[in-house]
Amino acid sequence: MGQYTLLKRDGKTRRGEFKTVHGTIQTPVFMNVGTLAAIKGAVSSMDLKEIGCQVELSNTYHLHLRPTDKVVGELGGLHKFMNWDRPILTDSGGFQVFSLAAMRKIKEEGVYFNSHIDGRKIFMGPEESMQIQSNLASTIAMAFDECIPNPSTREYVENSVARTTRWLERCKKEMDRLNSLPDTINKDQMLFGINQGGTYEDIRIEHAKTISKMDLDGYAIGGLAVGESHEDMYKVIDAVVPHLPVDKPIYLMGVGTPANILEAVERGVDFFDCVLPARNGRHGHLFTKDGKINIMNAKYELDTKPIDEGCQCPACKHYTRAYIRHLFKAKEMLAMRLAVLHNLYFYNNLMQEIRDAIDADNFAGFKAKKLQEWGIK
């Protein structure tokens, strides 16, 4: 069972730590996304330590298809498989089932869908998602939910949220059963529930109240960053956070830009994940203290400065903008590796700076200064 300790509050902003069987997580934290037990861009688990990653996030749906969770389980679980001894969060597969699988049928028992790899028919419900995640032996498992399309009618959202609640009850029951079995790899696996409700604040609040009574290890806000405006996203966070338990971590799924993170931290969020830094890096879009740059631009051809002056990432310590631009132009794999390392370091370091600012009672000042430096009004 995870133990969340609230170390400090500054308005709604929270500074905490979350004890797990694989180590203590300092929050707020950004989780580095390694969908298939690997960070896209040739970044290893050794690299993750060097760039300050606390939590790695892998994907239930993708690993179930390849190499299969049974294979990972036979090899001792994800930690052994990818040689990572810090916490791992696995998402439930729900988002992928709803976004990747064009052919799908949602029923009370779960979802029938076709694999995006070979088209074969697959069924996943709450019990299956928990069994897969138990085989993966992650530190934190996410409940199986429906990621509601945006926009959706009120009636659809109400029915979907009610089913997600019933699925959550089944997830909890199955997780308790799996953790009691003698051959389960991680008997301390934790379960986070997911708040849904689209952009309907009243549905969100009711759902938050309902799942809060279930005494889970943590709570996520799902179904955002799917096309709604930033204002709508912030409104939902403002509405939901006060109705989630104060003594449990709060995770905003799939968000987002550095500015999104600052705004959500201010609203009481502890955990974040997003493919954005790695995806941007692979396309030569690099985060710096002065905002984002596109390394492909001709103006960097003779630029001997590092990507971001003062940055302590492996790319900035050893290479110039000119060289990294050349690698991209020459389509060398090293280009993506250095760019992804830099962007992930930028995010992990931003979280460290956020934690330091909260510790120093200066989060509001830090946030204002950062947004100004990045040129965000």
TrEMBL record:
Its EC number is 2.4.2.29. Binds 1 zinc ion per subunit. Zn(2+) binds at residues 311, 313, 316, 342. One of its GO terms (cellular component) is cytosol. The keyword Ubl conjugation does not apply. GO terms for molecular function: metal ion binding; tRNA-guanosine(34) queuine transglycosylase activity. Pathway: tRNA modification; tRNA-queuosine biosynthesis. Residues 254-260, 278-282 are annotated as: RNA binding. Residues 12-374 form the tRNA-guanine(15) transglycosylase-like domain. It catalyses: 7-aminomethyl-7-carbaguanine + guanosine(34) in tRNA = 7-aminomethyl-7-carbaguanosine(34) in tRNA + guanine. GO terms for biological process: tRNA queuosine(34) biosynthetic process. Its cofactor is Zn(2+). Substrate binds at residues 91-95, 145, 196, 223. Keywords: Glycosyltransferase, Metal-binding, Queuosine biosynthesis, Transferase, tRNA processing, Zinc. The keyword Plastid does not apply. It comes from the Bacteria. It is an enzyme of class 2 (transferase). SUPFAM superfamilies: tRNA-guanine transglycosylase. The active site is at residues 91, 273. Catalyzes the base-exchange of a guanine (G) residue with the queuine precursor 7-aminomethyl-7-deazaguanine (PreQ1) at position 34 (anticodon wobble position) in tRNAs with GU(N) anticodons (tRNA-Asp, -Asn, -His and -Tyr). Catalysis occurs through a double-displacement mechanism. The nucleophile active site attacks the C1' of nucleotide 34 to detach the guanine base from the RNA, forming a covalent enzyme-RNA intermediate. The proton acceptor active site deprotonates the incoming PreQ1, allowing a nucleophilic attack on the C1' of the ribose to form the product. Homodimer. Within each dimer, one monomer is responsible for RNA recognition and catalysis, while the other monomer binds to the replacement base PreQ1. Belongs to the queuine tRNA-ribosyltransferase family. This is Queuine tRNA-ribosyltransferase.
